[in-house]
């Protein structure tokens, strides 16, 4: 069974890699034929990445600040979203009071709320981190509430019978049972965190990937602008791959349960 799974993973990886190579080659062919100013070739973008985006100075001034902000904002939203979601999901009737507030905050467009964050927290990293956290907390919160409320009552009753209460009940029963829904919310919020990070860095920033993309646009440096967008895309792929690996590790019990039930 493990050999079959490894073989399937190998072929899927090879197919995905081949698809990416094909798309890049098609992009190279089309942009080379039409010579459009606003659409540089992948080869030109790769040279720009090596020249101005992947140097030590550029990484320190742009990539590392963006990495710090996105991890801090997403991490802050994850902690508070899970904590509040567990509380709302466990306390009967509490969701009726919080649901209007949650949907109110969720409906506010983060770019529309950005001036409020600038007024309250200034233009430093704290504003950007809190802005990212505000924009991404809602999927985590809603999925956590849903996951906790959907726990089978048999599991809860069995835990009480065996004397599992308090903190042990939270960490050994509630969170593991709700973890598939929680991880789904975390994955959605991670993609949103990249968007929030770019938006926050395009306003009153002196460094970061979003800042550099905006500066490239203002200077009509199309090649550098495309290189910045490629950096964002590569970062998104790497973060998503790392998250999927962590999710597979923490939810490995779920695959085992599915195999036993099958």
UniProtKB/TrEMBL annotation:
Record-annotated membrane-spanning stretches: 20-39, 71-91, 112-141, 190-214, 226-246
Q: What is its main location?
A: membrane
Name the InterPro entries on file. Answer: MetI-like (IPR000515), MetI-like_sf (IPR035906)
Q: Which CDD domains match?
A: TM_PBP2
Q: Which Gene3D superfamilies match?
A: MetI-like (1.10.3720.10)
Q: Where does this one sit in the cell?
A: Cell membrane
Q: What is this protein called?
A: ABC transporter permease
Tell me the protein family, please: Belongs to the binding-protein-dependent transport system permease family.
User: What PANTHER family does this protein map onto?
Assistant: ABC TRANSPORTER PERMEASE PROTEIN MJ0413-RELATED, ALKANE SULFONATE ABC TRANSPORTER-RELATED, MEMBRANE SUBUNIT
Keywords (alphabetical) are: Cell membrane, Membrane, Transmembrane, Transmembrane helix, Transport
Q: What range(s) does the ABC transmembrane type-1 domain occupy?
A: 67-243
- Which Pfam families does the UniProt record give? BPD_transp_1
Q: How does it sit in the membrane?
A: Multi-pass membrane protein
């Amino acid at each position: 069974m493990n050999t079959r799974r490894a073989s399937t993973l190998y072929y899927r990886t090879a197919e995905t890699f081949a698809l990416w190579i094909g798309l890049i080659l098609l992009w190279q062919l089309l942009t080379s034929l039409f010579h459009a100013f606003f659409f540089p070739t992948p080869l030109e973008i790769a040279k720009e990445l090596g020249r101005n985006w992947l140097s030590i100075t550029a990484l320190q001034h742009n990539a590392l600040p963006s990495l710090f902000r996105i991890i801090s904002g997403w991490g802050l939203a994850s902690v508070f979203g899970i904590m509040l979601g567990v509380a709302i999901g466990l306390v009967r009737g509490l969701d009726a009071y919080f649901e209007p507030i949650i949907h109110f905050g969720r409906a506010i467009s983060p770019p529309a709320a950005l001036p409020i964050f600038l007024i309250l927290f200034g233009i430093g990293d704290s504003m950007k981190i809190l802005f990212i956290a505000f924009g991404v907390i809602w999927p985590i919160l809603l999925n956590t509430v849903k996951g906790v409320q959907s726990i089978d009552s048999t599991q809860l009753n069995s835990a009480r019978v065996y004397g599992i209460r308090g903190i042990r009940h939270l960490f050994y029963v509630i969170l593991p049972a709700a973890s598939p829904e929680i991880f789904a919310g975390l994955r959605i919020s991670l993609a949103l965190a990249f968007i929030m990070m770019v938006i926050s860095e395009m306003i009153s920033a002196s460094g970061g990937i979003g800042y550099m993309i905006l500066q490239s646009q203002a200077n009509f440096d199309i090649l550098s602008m495309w290189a910045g967008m490629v950096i964002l895309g590569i970062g998104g792929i790497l973060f998503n791959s790392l998250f999927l690996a962590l999710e597979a590790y923490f939810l490995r019990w779920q695959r085992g349960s599915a195999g036993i039930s099958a």
